[in-house]
């Protein structure tokens, strides 16, 4: 499978539903988020599964870090169901814009630099409030660069 630099991130209806439910129900005095699992084919990352924060996630008003055990369990389940692998993460910026912070960038760099994880690119999807709604933006991190990419959310049915 050829992997090219990512231009598009597509969240399936299944993944979108997890994210929109968490956005609707979470306490937004702190950030929330989770991991993203799916496939990177050509220039597109298709996200089939999105995680919730999990009980041990680090959640502050300006920082989010996934609950590793919770993320690992979801990753095992996703891989067993359709071969999805860890492609990145999503989180909220309740009080700022949907742009990776310096701390976010450092987290993504660490993932990219870990050869055991085997990331080609780390995908970040960040949501921030704008005019009373959540606005999402997708970013592809690779070789010390973070670039905005197109985000497509499938509408969940029902
Ligand atoms: Zn952030």
Fold and architecture overview:
With 158 residues, the chain is an alpha/beta fold. The chain has one domain: Cytidine Deaminase, domain 2, CATH 3.40.140.10. The chain has 3 helices and 8 strands; from the N terminus they run E-H-E-E-E-H-E-H-E-E-E. The chain has helices at 13-25, 68-82, 102-112, and strands at residues 3-11, 33-50, 58-60, 63-65, 85-92, 122-130, 133-142, 145-153. The strands form 2 sheets. It has a 6-stranded mixed beta barrel with strand order 1-2-5-6-7-8. Strands 3-4 form a two-stranded antiparallel ribbon. The longest helix has 15 residues, at 68-82. The structure holds zinc ion. Zinc ion is lined by residues 91, 93, 101, 104. InterPro entries: JAB_dom_prok. This is Mov34/MPN/PAD-1 family protein.
Question: What is the topology?
Answer:
Elements (H helix, E strand, L loop, with lengths): L2 E9 L1 H13 L7 E18 L7 E3 L2 E3 L2 H15 L2 E8 L9 H11 L9 E9 L2 E10 L2 E9 L5
Parallel strand pairs: 1-2, 1-8, 5-6
Antiparallel strand pairs: 2-5, 3-4, 6-7, 7-8
The protein binds zinc ion (ZN).
Terminus-to-terminus distance: 34 Å
How many helices? The count is 3
CATH H-tier superfamily: Cytidine Deaminase, domain 2
At CATH level 2, the architecture is 3-Layer(aba) Sandwich
Round the Cα radius of gyration to an integer and report it: 14 Å
Q: What small ligands are held by the chains?
A: zinc ion
Helix content: 10-25%
Tally the structural domains.
Answer: 1
Q: Runs with pLDDT <50, length 5+?
A: none
According to CATH, the fold-level topology is: Cytidine Deaminase, domain 2
Characterize the largest beta sheet: strand count, sense, and whether it forms a barrel.
6 strands, mixed, barrel
Shape assignment? globular
Strand order of the largest sheet: 1-2-5-6-7-8
Along the chain, the helix and strand elements come as EHEEEHEHEEE
What is the tally of beta strands? 8
Q: Please write the CATH class name.
A: Alpha Beta
């Amino acid at each position: 499978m050829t992997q090219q630099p990512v231009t598009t991130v597509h969240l399936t209806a299944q993944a979108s539903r997890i994210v929109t439910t968490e956005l609707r129900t979470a306490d937004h005095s702190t950030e929330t988020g989770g991991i993203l699992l799916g496939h990177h084919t050509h220039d597109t990352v298709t996200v089939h599964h999105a995680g919730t924060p999990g009980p041990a996630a680090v959640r502050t008003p300006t920082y989010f870090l996934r609950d590793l055990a919770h993320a690992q369990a979801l990753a095992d389940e996703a891989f067993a169901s359709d071969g999805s692998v860890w492609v990145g993460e999503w989180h909220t910026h309740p009080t700022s814009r949907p742009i990776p912070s310096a701390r976010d960038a450092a987290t993504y760099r660490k993932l990219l630099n870990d050869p055991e994880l085997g990331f080609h690119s780390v995908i970040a999807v960040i949501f921030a409030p704008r005019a009373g709604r959540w606005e999402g933006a997708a970013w592809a991190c690779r070789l010390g660069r973070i670039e905005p990419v197109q985000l497509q959310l499938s509408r969940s049915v029902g």
